[in-house]
Amino acid sequence: MPQTKQRNSSVDSLMRLQTEMIACSRCPRLVAWREQVAAEKVRRFAGDDYWGKPVPSFGDPRARLLVVGLAPAAHGGNRTGRIFTGDRSGDWLYRALHRAGFANQPTSVHRRDGLKLRDCYITAVIHCAPPGNKPLREEIENCRPFLISEIELLSRLRVVVALGRLAFDATIALIGLEQPARGNNAARARKPNFAHGCEAQLRGGSTLIASFHPSQQNTFTGKLTEPMLDRVFDRAREIVRG
Description:
Layout: H1 2-22, H2 28-40, E1 58-59, E2 65-69, H3 77-80, H4 88-99, E3 120-124, H5 137-153, E4 159-163, H6 165-175, E5 199-201, E6 207-211, H7 216-219, H8 226-241
Parallel strand pairs: 2-3, 2-4, 4-6
Antiparallel strand pairs: 1-3, 5-6
Helix pairs in contact: 1-5, 4-8
């Protein structure tokens, strides 16, 4: 019974956090940009009713896998209201999650399309679409408390997959690396260089896996292929189910 109460409390806390996130207006530049994009739209989505607010995280509150992205896309999450939904990056991500058994379907088109994540939770370094996909340092800092709270509330966390260098650096900064045992010559754990597929042990015992971001810049050029992304999530599955 105490475990059930604790689980329900975490779920309720995550829901309250998402509500707080959606109402956030801490960054004037991002507020102005997300609302401008939602008002002006683009021709191919001219008939859509844009979300135009901070995009909440999405997934299973009891997840052992956390996926950390950079930010919503202006005409993806900022349009649909769900993270990694309605753009090419999301197409790649959810196909990979489905193949690895973390999603019930390979597509993510809109908030009511039936998509459900299993043992997986998706968040971002910032939750508003930034101009040019480049958030400012102070905007990252303003959003930082949301990510801190999510990590604390995901009590079963075993693996973090960071999509891109910024998400990789932010995760290490928030959680920290596992320190070497006493007597080791190294005084501190050395931060690994970002590379696709590299791993690091985070403080508390979870594993960080780096991945190139599934942006069109990476997928169109072949820097990231679907087999490469599959290997990351196959490794994540191996850890959480092992």
